[in-house]
Amino acid sequence: MFTGLIERLGRIEAIDEIGDARHFTIAAPDSNYLQDALIGESIAVSGVCLTATELTDTSFKVSAVEETLRRTSLGARQIGDSVNLERALPVGARLGGHIVQGHVDGVADIVAIRDEGEGWWVTFQPPFDMMRYIVEKGSVCLDGISLTVANAAYNKFSVALIPHTREVTSAGSWQLGGRVNVEVDIVAKYVERLTQWANGPRGEE
Q: Going from the N-terminus, what domains does the chain have, and what CATH number goes with each?
């Protein structure tokens, strides 16, 4: 589990494409970040929960298979790209953002960016069926960043970015026409599922 509070900005050092998978080597900005990391642990890379398969003092390797590449922006990532990093939440730590699983639901397009002096107002258009989970003043995870929905319309939603968020995450490089990973609040999906089953299970066995 993660919180959506980005710990570091990493950089993609290498990409190896083997079959339908992509294998990423990601550099951390300092050696302290990975000093107690273990092979097999989960690291969220721009919101995608991936398993560390190799580790050095300053970098780690992860792999993304076809399903992950199809559902996220990792299929379009290039060497040199910055990525948001967050290691899994340790037991007993403060949950400063919201509950994030690292299971991306889809990718949204950036359709508007408005500079409001101290902050940015950014509008996204996700796949339409995702909008039912996004509510005004609720939480949404964008490229691994826990953000509050400032406005939710019929087919798009907006967030407000403070300068700090732009400085310490990849949000500072978001551009019109760009794409971001979206994970909606898991609580909303559980509520929907329970409601569907209120009158008994449905669908084929």
A: 8-87 (2.40.30.20), 106-192 (2.40.30.20)
